[in-house]
Every structure is written in C-alpha cells, then in structure tokens.
Amino acid sequence: EAVTKTKKILSANMEAQLSVECLMEDEDFGSTINREVFLEMCQPMMDRVTAVLESAKAAAAAAGITTE
C-alpha cells in the first residue's frame, strides 16, 4: 500500500516520502525517494517486460500477424 502510494506521488512529483509502520518487529521505516532513483530501481523489470513484448511481436510476425 505504501509503495503504491509513493509510486503515484512520484508520477506527479520529483520526490516522495515513504513510510511503513511496524515493518518488522514493531519497527517503523521511513525514507525519501526521488523519481530518478525509483526509475533506476524499476529499469531491470522494464527491460524484462520489453524483451517479452519484443519476443511476442516477433512470434506474431512469424505467424503472419501484424502489429499495425
């Protein structure tokens, strides 16, 4: 829930506060993250998604299906 909220804030702002209560053994977590760091953290996942989409596009083309 906290991560989703932070992601939404970062879509409109360059920086966001992230806080999670009772993360582990009654310990709270709080931090600030900026959009650049968030995008860097997401890049490996975006690369994997892009590879899957490119593979699907190639398979569709091989089957005679166009993406236009």
From TrEMBL:
InterPro entries: ATPase_NBD, Hsp_70_fam
Upper lineage: Eukaryota, Sar, Alveolata, Dinophyceae, Suessiales
Pfam families referenced in this protein's UniProt entry, alphabetically: HSP70
Keywords of this entry: ATP-binding, Nucleotide-binding
Record protein name field: HSP70-14 protein
GO cellular component: cytosol; nucleus
Top-level division of the source organism's lineage: Eukaryota
Keyword Nucleotide-binding appears in the UniProt entry: yes
